[in-house]
Specification:
Layout (H helix, E strand, L loop, with lengths): L15 E5 L6 H7 L5 E6 L1 H17 L3 E6 L5 H13 L2 E8 L1 H14 L3 E5 L11 E6 L2 E6 L5 E5 H4 L4 H12 L1 H15 L5 H16 L9 H21 L8 H12 L6 H15 L4 H11 L5 H4 L3 H10 L18 H10 L4
Helix pairs in contact: 3-4, 6-9, 6-11, 7-11, 8-9, 10-11, 10-14, 11-12, 14-15
């Protein structure tokens, strides 16, 4: 006789995470330990191909792997189709995403769609998608957040990530700091809408954010140790999504603001930069310590104002007014009706965003 208990949840995590100076040299050994065989397809870009993909290719060839490469640009629907078609053409049995966030997103989506394993080899850390089960992709004029594969393994070489523009690392740190607002939104949805909340996922996401905030003064340009300080929280933030089964612990009203700003002012700022600014404002709405968030962002060198984002005060206000429209399924501090233009202007002024 059934006792009526029917809850089921599946959680997938990376089996191995290597982080530190020179760990890219262990790429071949990791593939052997996972008993991967046959042809691998490296998904990379023009810049990252020069930086790391050639090195990974040589390491794997020395281990006897057949290595093919697919050089792509942004994470778009067209490039996803390209990666999947090349994978089929070369009869790849596993993928490696070697590059920035867009290359890893393409690899993890192709891995998910083709049901094959992939390894994440980041060459920058501009957001928390290095080890997460979510990926962002552009489809027409929209940016979609989709379910994707969790990497079988992660190889985060601080020596390589350090060589990327510091702005990317600062953006990744800001993206993780934004967990603070996302968690408050999730807790609010739990109280007002009885939405299920995973305390384990929330605690992981909060731990990652606090690690960045507390060590903000140690995260500086031209210092490989800054990557070492930031990379673990960035990876843990992504893993919190695997625990939750969604992006809820890392994405709330601040991300909705960012995604709307993408439509209003495309290409002006990085995703994490916009989320950081959004977090300052959403923390004020929650009655939280928004000054602490702003101070941490400033210490790291991430934007805290419209001017630093390269957008106008009118664009900030418009994004705030329409942010609540983006995800009707995700209740946040913005509620169902959002902010009026006057309230949005007041919010951005008080928090010194405009």
């Amino acid at each position: 006789m059934s006792d009526g208990f029917t809850k089921v949840r599946a959680m997938s995590f990376p089996r191995q995470v290597l982080a530190g100076h020179g760990v890219i040299e262990q790429a071949g050994t990791m593939c052997e330990e996972f008993e991967l065989k046959g042809t691998t397809l490296i998904v990379t870009g023009q810049t990252t191909g020069e930086l790391a993909a050639k090195q990974v290719e040589q390491i794997l060839q020395d281990k006897g792997f057949d290595v093919q490469k697919c050089v792509v640009g942004e994470a778009s629907r067209a490039n996803l189709v390209k990666v999947e078609e090349v994978s089929k053409d070369v009869k790849a049995s596993f993928l490696l995403g070697v590059g920035g966030g867009s290359k890893i997103d393409l690899a993890k989506l192709a891995s998910f769609n083709l049901n094959m394993p992939f390894l994440s080899v980041p060459t920058s850390a501009s957001h928390d998608g290095i080890a997460s089960p979510r990926a962002s992709i552009k489809d027409g004029g929209n940016s979609l957040s989709l379910n994707a594969s969790v990497p079988l393994g992660v190889i985060a070489d601080t020596r390589i990530i350090f060589k990327a523009p510091y702005r990317l690392l600062a953006s990744g740190c800001a993206d993780v700091i934004s967990n603070t607002a996302a968690i408050l939104d999730w807790q609010l949805a739990d109280r007002l809408r009885s939405e299920f909340i995973s305390s384990s996922a929330a605690n992981l996401a909060k731990y990652a954010a606090e690690s960045i905030i507390e060590n903000a003064a140690a995260i500086k340009p031209n210092l490989e140790d800054s990557v070492w300080v930031a990379i673990r929280p960035i990876i843990i933030s992504g893993i919190s999504m695997a625990v939750a089964g969604s992006s809820r612990p890392t994405s709330g009203s601040e991300h909705m603001f960012s995604h709307v700003l993408d439509k209003i002012a495309p290409g002006k700022a990085l995703h994490g930069e916009q989320c950081g600014v959004g977090t300052v404002m959403m923390m004020y709405l929650h009655g939280g310590d928004w000054q602490r968030i702003r101070d941490a962002l400033q210490l790291i060198g991430a934007p805290t104002s419209a001017k630093e984002l390269g957008v106008s005060r009118e664009q900030i206000i418009e994004a705030l007014v329409h942010a609540h429209e983006l995800r009707k399924d995700r209740y946040t501090i913005l509620g169902d009706r959002g902010l009026t233009p006057d309230a949005a202007e007041r919010l951005a002024t008080i928090t010194k965003v405009i």
